[in-house]
Design goal:
This protein is an all-alpha fold and 522 residues long. The chain contains 19 helices and no strands.
Length: 522
C-alpha cells in the first residue's frame, strides 16, 4: 500500500493523476455534447446556428482567455488558478443541466469555457514543473493520452447518457469528476509560479485579444444568416482586424506582456502552435458534422452513433502514451508530420461518403484518423514545452492551448459557414419551384431538421444538400491538416532548444522587479 501514500518520490505521479482527472472532464465536453445536439435541438427548439453556438460559446471562451489563464497562473500560482477554474467549470456544468432554453444553455457553456481557460494551461504547466526533462515526455504522453481518451470517449458516454438518462446528464457527470480533481490536487500538487517577473495583469492585452477573436468568430458563425456583405458582418470583421492589430502593437510595447512574441522566434514553438491550430480545426469540425450525419442521415440513435466511434477511442487511448515514449527517441518532427498526413488522408477518404454509405465505409478512415491524431497530440505539446524555459511554462501552455481552441472554434465556425453556403446553393437549385420560406427553413436547419414529415422530393433534396456540403467541408479539413503537416516538417526541431524566454538579462531584470509591489498594469 506504500505506493498509494504520498511521498516526495511519488508526488509527481499523484500530481499527474490530478491533472488528468481535470483534463478528462474538460476535454470530454469538447465531444460529449456533439451526440446530444439533435436531442437538444428538438428539446429546446434550437436552430443550426444555435447548435453551433452550443459548441462555439465553450471553445470561444476558452480560446480568448487561455493565455490570460496561463499568465495568471504564472503570476499568482498555477495550482491556485487551476483550482479556481475547476470549481467554476463544475458549478457551470451543474447549472447547464437545468437549462430552460437555448440561450441559458449557451451562456452556461460560455461560463464553462471561462473555467476551462483557467484550468487547461495549469494542467500542462503543473506537469512540466513536476517532472524533470528526462521523464517529461512520458508524463506529457500520458496527459495527451487522457486528452485523446476524453475526446474519443465523449460520443460513447454522451450517446449512452442521452439515450438512457437525458441530455442534461452529460453535464451533471462533470460534478463528481470536478470534486475528485479538487481533492486530489489539494492533496498532491505543489504550488509554483514564474519568479522572474512582477505580478502584473495586462488588461489592455486581455481586452483587445478577447474582443478581436470574439468579433471574428461571431462574423464567421453569423455570416450566412446576416449576409456576407451585410454592414453587421463587415463591421465585425473590420473590428476584429483593428483589435488584433492593436493587440500585437500593445504586446510589443508592454513591460510584462500577456503574450511574449519572442517565443515565436523559436521555429519549434511557432510550428507546434500552427500544428495545434490545424489539427483542432480539422478534428472538432469533423466530430460536429459527422455526428449530425450519423444521427440525421443514417438514423442512428445517440448511443448507436457513439458506439461507432469506439474503434477510434481504443486507438487514441493506445497512441497517446506510445507517442509520448516515441517522441523521446525520434523527436517530435517525424511523428507530427506522419500523424497530420494520416489525418489529412482520413478526412479526404471520409469526404466521399454518400447518403447510402454504410458504417463499414467509415470504419477504416476512422481508424486511420485515430492513429494520426494520436501521433500528433503528445509530440505537439512536447515540442512547444521544450522550446521554452521552465519558468515560462504557464504562459507557453496557455498560448498552445489557445491555438488548439482557436483552431477548433474556427473549424466549427468556418466549416459551418461553408456547409451552410454550399447546402443553401444546392437547395435553391434543386427546389427552385418551392416557396422561398421552405427553402429558407431547410437551409437554416441543414443537417438538423427531421425529414420524416416532409414530402419525399423535399426530404431527398435536403439530405443530398447536407451530404454534398459535408463532403466539401471534409475536403477543406483535409487540406488544413496537410498544411499542418508541412508546418511541422519545416519548422519543428527534434532538439530541446529552450530558445524562448531564457535571456539572462530578462531573468536578472525579473529578479529586480520582484522587489516592486504587485499591481494591475493598465
Amino acid at each position: 500500500m506504500d505506493r498509494f501514500r504520498l511521498s516526495e518520490d511519488n508526488r509527481r505521479w499523484w500530481t499527474l493523476g490530478a491533472m488528468c482527472f481535470a483534463l478528462f472532464m474538460l476535454m470530454l465536453d469538447n465531444t460529449v455534447v456533439n451526440v446530444a445536439l439533435p436531442t437538444i435541438q428538438k428539446d429546446l427548439k434550437a436552430s443550426i446556428s444555435g447548435l453551433e453556438w452550443t459548441v462555439n460559446a465553450y471553445t470561444l471562451a476558452i480560446a480568448v482567455l487561455l493565455v490570460t489563464g496561463g499568465r495568471l497562473g504564472d503570476l499568482f500560482g498555477r495550482v491556485r488558478v487551476f483550482l479556481f477554474g475547476v470549481v467554476l467549470f463544475t458549478i457551470a456544468s451543474a447549472a447547464i443541466g437545468f437549462s430552460p432554453n437555448a440561450t441559458f444553455l449557451v451562456v452556461g457553456r460560455a461560463i464553462q469555457g471561462i473555467g476551462a481557460a483557467a484550468m487547461m494551461p495549469g494542467t500542462l504547466s503543473i506537469i512540466s514543473n513536476a517532472f524533470p526533462p528526462s521523464e517529461r515526455g512520458r508524463a506529457i504522453g500520458t496527459w495527451a493520452g487522457v486528452s485523446a481518451l476524453a475526446l474519443a470517449a465523449g460520443p460513447v458516454v454522451g450517446g449512452f447518457l442521452v439515450e438512457h438518462v437525458s441530455w442534461q446528464s452529460i453535464f451533471f457527470l462533470n460534478v463528481p469528476i470536478g470534486i475528485a480533481a479538487v481533492f486530489v490536487t489539494l492533496f498532491a500538487a505543489k504550488e509554483s509560479r514564474d519568479e522572474t517577473v512582477e505580478r502584473t495583469v495586462d488588461v489592455p492585452g486581455v481586452l483587445t485579444l478577447s474582443g478581436g477573436l470574439a468579433s471574428l468568430v461571431l462574423a464567421l458563425v453569423q455570416a450566412n444568416h446576416w449576409g456576407w456583405g451585410s454592414p453587421a458582418i463587415l463591421s465585425l470583421i473590420a473590428l476584429s482586424v483593428v483589435l488584433l492589430v492593436s493587440f500585437v502593437q500593445i504586446e510589443l510595447r508592454r513591460r510584462v506582456p500577456m503574450v511574449d512574441f519572442t517565443f515565436f522566434r523559436s521555429k519549434s514553438f511557432l510550428g507546434a502552435n500552427l500544428v495545434a491550430f490545424c489539427v483542432s480545426f480539422a478534428m472538432l469540425a469533423t466530430f460536429f458534422f459527422i455526428t449530425l450525419y450519423m444521427q440525421n442521415v443514417q438514423d442512428y440513435s445517440p448511443l448507436q452513433a457513439g458506439v461507432r466511434f469506439l474503434p477510434m477511442t481504443v486507438l487514441l487511448i493506445a497512441m497517446g502514451p506510445l507517442a509520448g515514449r516515441l517522441v523521446n527517441r525520434t523527436g517530435p518532427r517525424l511523428l507530427l508530420t506522419v500523424g497530420l498526413t494520416l489525418t489529412a488522408g482520413s478526412l479526404l477518404w471520409q469526404s466521399f461518403i454518400t447518403v447510402d454509405s454504410t458504417y463499414a465505409f467509415l470504419l477504416a478512415p476512422f481508424m486511420v484518423q485515430a492513429i494520426g491524431m494520436g501521433l500528433v497530440m503528445s509530440p505537439m505539446s512536447t515540442a512547444a514545452m521544450n522550446a521554452v524555459v521552465q519558468t515560462k511554462a504557464g504562459v507557453a501552455s496557455g498560448i498552445l492551448s489557445m491555438s488548439r481552441m482557436v483552431g477548433g472554434t474556427f473549424g466549427v465556425a468556418a466549416l459551418g459557414a461553408l456547409v451552410a453556403a454550399v447546402g443553401r446553393h444546392d437547395i435553391d437549385r434543386s427546389l427552385a419551384s418551392s416557396s422561398p420560406a421552405l427553402r429558407d427553413k431547410l437551409a437554416e436547419n441543414l443537417g438538423t431538421i427531421p425529414t420524416a414529415g416532409l414530402p419525399p422530393r423535399v426530404a431527398t433534396a435536403a439530405t443530398d444538400a447536407f451530404v454534398h456540403a459535408l463532403n466539401v467541408g471534409l475536403k477543406v479539413g483535409a487540406g488544413v491538416a496537410l498544411i499542418g503537416a508541412a508546418c511541422a516538417f519545416a519548422l519543428v526541431s527534434n532538439k530541446e532548444q529552450h530558445t524562448a524566454g531564457n535571456d539572462a538579462d530578462d531573468v536578472r531584470a525579473g529578479r529586480l522587479r520582484r522587489e516592486e509591489p504587485a499591481l494591475v498594469e493598465v
